[in-house]
Amino acid sequence: MKSKSLGINSICTHVGEVEDKQFKGAVSPIFTASSYAYEDVAVKRYPRYFNTPNQEALSKKIARLEKCESALIFGSGMAAVSTTMLAFLHKGDHVILPQTLYGGTYNLVVEEFHKFGIDYSFAEGFSETDFSSKIQENTKVIFVETPSNPLMKITDLKMISRLAIQHGLITMIDNTFASPVNQTPKDFGIDIIIHSATKYMGGHSDICAGAVAGSEEHIKKIWNLAKNLGGSLSDYTVWLLERSMKTMVLRVKAQNKNAKKMANWLKNHRLVNKVYYPGLKSHPNHQLAKKQMRGYTGMLSFELDNSIEVDGFLNALQLIKPSMSLAGVESTILSPAKTSHALLSTEERQKQGISDQLLRLSVGIEEIEDLIDDFEAAFNKVTDKDLV
Ligand SMILES: *Cc1c(COP(=O)(O)O)cnc(C)c1O
User: Which residue CA neighbors atom 4 of ligand 1 most closely?
Assistant: First the structure.
């Protein structure tokens, strides 16, 4: 098959299948063995070596989706993030990351890096000077996350890779929020692409996994450390992730579409003060998002009017579930101030633009009318109560 020209849905459905030579079944069989016959030292097969048949097959699918030569699958997004960063950062090195960062990555950096003698700086904003002003002699890596959580700010990927080339740095992106459906960082020169596959790749809130994609050379370097740190994913879950990814494009496109409609509906609601969604023309980074993304994701956040009590509103929802995680086929919602960003001080939250009235919504694949009805009913319930 001339696989080079396959479209994204065909890649999701077919690339990297494990062929069922025995029964000619239509889907990949699961090879559960943790012990394989010795062939030679270069091809020792073992789950922690990331090279079982199912692991190798799914890695090919992910590499192709990210337009990269190679990929690895991990036991969690954080296993992918930590292994990748530690593969390129050694004692005395320095890394630049955005201040607004996924909580787990932030904790990894501030709680662990000093033990390894790795230095770091946080870029306060998302502009070129925010990043370039942090470059020092020992800087090795720029790590970005775009769109950001929860305000959906966009970092210019071309600007980041240009900066990195000028200074001889490696670039890494956490591409989880965008998913491979909406953003291909390789197109803009980013070296290494990381995913929490727990989110859009898994898509059903029942898998914890991670992935990293890059050049053969970079992935080999990550693998050298990965096999020692031991963050591989069980073949049962590899198989389930492969199954989930077959429908990833269909799911994510439906979520993009729903989120755009929801963002527009919320924007016009009298009890909503602000909506943060890069697909809205009013979003400060809309033009940039349009340039480097194919869709604006199923993620958005919005501020309830001060007259609305946040907990009461969340409790009044029937269909949309309160949940810490995101990107499943079901719509979920959370208050960043009370959950993901609860450990920050009120001042620090204010500095990052996260108010107590802010809610983050992960839009699912339900009918948009049902989601809107759920919100409308909750608004009615909490405002009625005020009148009684
Ligand atoms: C969830 C998440 C992670 C961490 O992934 P786990 O699978 O929970 O380890 C990293 N980055 C982003 C943006 C995430 O949303």
Answer: 77
